[in-house]
Amino acid sequence: MDFSKRAVLLSAASVLTLALGSSTGVVTAAPTTGIEVPKVHGGMVILATGQEVHEVLGGTSPTMDLTVDKGYGHVKIKVKNTGTSNLTWSLQGNGREYIVKTVGKGSTLTWTSLNSFPNGMPSGKYVIQFRANGNKVEGDAWGTTGQFPSDIE
Question: What's the superkingdom here (predicted)?
């Protein structure tokens, strides 16, 4: 059978090769195990992101949960304040408060762990607490984790 296109999908457990038949349009799939991937990936960029979360903010004290899995300690948090008051947020977890940031009304702030935690944050469950000096919090928040600094840039 002559195959004109091949795609290889990698997973932690196995590799699945999809072969598209050029003349028949038949698709076959055969699982393969024991494959070795060279360190040079042929120009292919592999992004390894962990959890990605998004929360529409409302109320006077909303929160957003963020889990940092082991090996995914590089964190990026983006907060967009659409309210009429300054918005303050804090990242709490593992029994402590890690950071506190303020976002001006109508502004957006992106924070990454790269300066404060160049080797990544500790794994665990985190809570991001949002406040607006007793006023209603309005906006959006996003959080993501990655294996490497380039995953969150």
Answer: Bacteria
